[in-house]
Amino acid sequence: MSVNQMTEFNQAHEVIKAKDLLEELIELYDDVVTEGNQIFAKWKEEITRSDFEESARNLSYYLALRQRDIRGIQKDLVPWGLSSLGRLEAKTLSTLEAVISALSAIVGDKSQIKQPDFKEFSVGEAKLASNIEKILGQAPSNRYTRIMVTMPSEVSEDIELAKNLISKGMNVARINCAHDNTEIWQKMIHNIRKSAKELGKDVKILMDIAGPKIRTEWIYTTYKKPKVSVSDKICLTTNNQMLPTNQEVKVTVGTSVPEIINQLSVGDPVLIDDGSIESIVESINEEEAILLVKRVNGKSIRLKAEKGLNFPGLYFDIDILTDEDLDAMKFAVEHADIIGCSFIRDVKDVEAIQAELDKLLGNKAGTVALLFKIETVQAVNNLTQLILKAASRNPLSIMIARGDLAVETGYIRLAEVQQQIMWICEAANIPVVWGTEVLANMLETGIPSRAEVTDAAEGARSDCVMINKGNYMLETVTMLDEILHMMKEHQFKKTPKLRALSIAKNIMID
């Protein structure tokens, strides 16, 4: 066989492979359309917000696609100079149609699937941008990603602090309803609104309802230095009248949600203080659970009151809104732009929140913007149902609350889960807030760690980055503003933006 014959043979072989790939793509497309339509049909009657209908349809197609492993197809598309389908979240069908149309042209096949209108590729992005502006405020001139800041109590008395935070780049002010009271919240809101008006800025106010956060309420011990180590035992109790006399127990702990005790079983995991203490239930009765410590941060650690309790993988039948939450929500619907909801787990929780809004606002309940904090395994597993149920009635945004979520899922799984949440939300045109411990060292000491600078840059792929309160808030907002401004030139969501690199110009060519 001559060289020319060999070349022709190879080319013919490649065309055959391309035709096989085309058939595989068309089959994939047909399945995605069929199953996507079935998913959408289940939810269509629930959607009362016309703004969400097309977003829900695209999400349905995306979910149908992501039920399949298409890595082989992605790899085979690359040599043909075609999209590898890695950035189709907001334009699922249009991307598939464009790739099929292009591959059909390459192999000389007249496919019934035509090249979509170019405008279809920007519909999802435009819808997301509109949703972000409605919920999180106008886009800053220098960056895409907004900045959310948790308000310290001092903002209620110090209007200059509010003004400085806004001038440095704050776009959303977060008020944590687990702290302070309505009088202080009112003063905070007044100072924020007044400062924003004076500066000509659009600053949204989020009131974050605490939810059923399970915490250590009080601590009792007979030890002078009540630190716990591996193999120590902790008593988790509902009884604050009669303290246990079990000599094997080093520390006795009361809980803020006592009804969880009778929902635990022997062997269940119990994590304390953001996972600093890992334990399992060794024994249990109606009033108490004895926890065996399996691992601690360091050799030993002091157990304190008001620290979080996590139960990875467990579901507790407790109300999503406490009595305190109901009072906070009454205030929030009158004063806030966004109502944050913590520890959302399933559709039942969404229904309870929307029912309370109906009670408070009647036919205006659907105008309230909600922010759901995803911080439990149940919320991750139910994410699409949560989005469809909530966004069908209310403008919705999602916060990746990485603190509790890391404890619940484990740190290794968190790295994957936080990306998956962003993909699902982009497919539904839902704004995402990147939260928890962003630039935490900078806030505390004024000096950022190398890792947290990288983390903040990763947050630029979201629509808003949240920082907490701390000693160096103004400096941290300034730094985050600069990081997000820089990343705007390099990244949008999953898409790298290839501007000219100065380091690429330094090469010497003779």
UniProtKB/TrEMBL annotation:
Reported cofactor(s): K(+)
Pfam families per the UniProt record, alphabetical: PK
Pyruvate kinase barrel domain ranges (all copies): 143-476
Keyword annotations: ATP-binding, Glycolysis, Kinase, Magnesium, Metal-binding, Nucleotide-binding, Pyruvate, Transferase
Molecular function terms, GO-annotated: ATP binding; kinase activity; magnesium ion binding; potassium ion binding; pyruvate kinase activity
This protein's record includes keyword Phosphoprotein: no
Pathway(s) per entry: Carbohydrate degradation; glycolysis; pyruvate from D-glyceraldehyde 3-phosphate: step 5/5
EC number: 2.7.1.40
Catalytic activity: pyruvate + ATP = phosphoenolpyruvate + ADP + H(+)
Family in the record: Belongs to the pyruvate kinase family.
Protein name, entry field: Pyruvate kinase
Taxonomic placement: Bacteria, Bacillati, Bacillota, Bacilli, Lactobacillales
